Amino acid sequence: MLPMPMTGDQYLLGILARETVDNGPNSPVRGVQTLLLPMIREWANGMLFAMHPSGSFMKGTAITTGTDVDLFISLSETTPETLKDVYDKLFNRLTEKNFSPTRQNVSINIKAFGYSIDSLANTPK
């Protein structure tokens, strides 16, 4: 007897199950954040408010074949630099640490720890 043909929904659910990125508390992607945190803290010079994943990873829509890791870096409202200065200083620090960053519209991309990572720094100003 031949197996029953798969419905479109079954096919899609199979792909999603295979390609979904683990976004739980112990996921490898969160490990990237842990590895970068000491360098980001040093760069922020006491002005780091928080750093957390954002984008498709946090929405649960990330897939393994085309996902970068978006890290949102929130700085204190008392950060004296302009947003442009913050962006430039982050780029320079990533360069100093040999991450070979690439400037993007509002974020900076690095390839590290097997991931493509987009870092977006912001201040509440």
Automatic annotation (TrEMBL):
This is Nucleotidyltransferase-like protein. The lineage of its organism: Bacteria, Pseudomonadati, Acidobacteriota, Terriglobia, Terriglobales. It comes from the Bacteria. It comes from Edaphobacter modestus.
